[in-house]
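Work package 3, deliverable 3.1, input record:
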Amino acid sequence: MIRIFLAFLLAVWAGFAQAQELSALARFDATASGVKDEAGLTQLRLTISQPVAWRVRVLDNPPRVVIDTREVDWKSVQSLDGQSPNVTGLRAGPFRPGWSRLVLTLARPMAVQAAQMQTDGPVQINLTLGPIDPKRFAELAALPEPLEWALPEPTPLAELPKDRPFVVMLDPGHGGIDPGAERDSITEAELMLTFARELRDVLRGQGVRVELTREEDIFVPLEARISAARAKGASVFVSLHADALAEGEAVGATVYTLSEEASDAASQALAERHDRDDLLAGIDLTEQDDVVAGVLMDMARTETAPRTARLALALETAIKSADLKMHRHARQEAGFSVLKSPDIPSVLVEIGFLSSTADFKRINDKEWRAEMALAIADGLKVWADEDAALRALRNP
Ligand SMILES: [Zn+2]
């Protein structure tokens, strides 16, 4: 008997109740999968090793189909790339604990006409994509996430306690579906998680409270990283990266602060790429600007900006004092979305660039990382003391 899970309607929560409790990881089978165009429709056949709970939705700008599943190892799904001109890109990876996400970038808006999981014989997710009016597609893409799936709401400013303890929020860049830069099969995401843990240990050893935006190799949207910092009452936010930079020959640590005007084209490209990675992973940042819009937020930023500038300077001084390699322009500015907290001084530190052979060697060296962690901890300490002193002057 053929058993088919009912097709899930777009953006309607896939019935967990009916889904069997399956904890083991399912594997994707590339050889038994494919994409083909037929009679104006695009058929996707994804074979996996066992049935899993799943759901499908669409997102716009660029048009995408997002397939969320209970853990599926989608490795080699990119081998389906190029099988249909309607699907211009595929990427997949862990999304949130226990869930994987597969994102298909479409050449144009398309309707999900049918979505089924066949469980008789080989387990297959079958999707049929067809033509759709772009306006209708945009409407479907704009449907809100189900409550239990939505991102945490940012904590209102007023709810944060006045005399809060000094808390450092470390933000290991990228993760999960978004590996960041890659070199010799080592990803920026894993290197930065390692470094964040090492820096956390150094800071905790000095009695500083530290939180991480992610503790494992999962995707955390940029907006959720900001929300997490606010929820934990962070005094300062440090995003850690080691990107690849094709533009110019970037080498050495660089401290970035937020600005609408980037220091140079390379910085701007870097910031745009981070936003694009986030977008491709399925999160739309457009609402972020609504959240942080408004006069109050701008006022908060006016107060925060000079504190952030001093933070960047303190970090530059500490890293230089430790005799660690810095970029010839050690402090730079760009429109990194992850730095948009209006009230928390936020910096993005490229501890080096994976595109530089010398930096790559250094970042992979545990001893070098230990020195860098100490330097950053020193910089944070100097800044925290100075910041507290200046605040005391202002509010005696
Ligand atoms: Zn990065």
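The chain has two domains: 4-147, 157-394.
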